[in-house]
Amino acid sequence: MNKKTLIWHELIGLKVKIKRSSHPELVGIEGYIIDETKNTLTIVGEKVWIIPKNVAEFEFEVGDKKIVIDGKELIGRPEMRLKKRWKR
């Protein structure tokens, strides 16, 4: 899995960390994704956070790889984003 293919996969259950954000208090939040909507990711770690996708850069841990993706690339309903895979 790489940066291009990660956006087509299910994100729920992946370990994630916020690397950059336009809201400084969000930087460093890490945990597991438990829910995804069109514009947000719900992350559980020390507590539960609902993070807007368009304000953050996420680092996903997939196996032994770390993949950094701008949240703007993830905007959209999860099921529609997954369907786009088959149109390309």
From TrEMBL:
The gene is rnp1. One of its GO terms (biological process) is rRNA processing. Keywords: Cytoplasm, Endonuclease, Hydrolase, Nuclease, tRNA processing. Consists of a catalytic RNA component and at least 4-5 protein subunits. InterPro entries: RNase_P/MRP_Rpp29-subunit (IPR016848), RNase_P/MRP_Rpp29_sf (IPR036980), RNP1 (IPR023538), Rof/RNase_P-like (IPR023534), Rpp29/RNP1 (IPR002730). Belongs to the eukaryotic/archaeal RNase P protein component 1 family. It is found in: Cytoplasm. It comes from the Archaea. The keyword Nuclease applies. Its main location: cytoplasm. This is Ribonuclease P protein component 1.
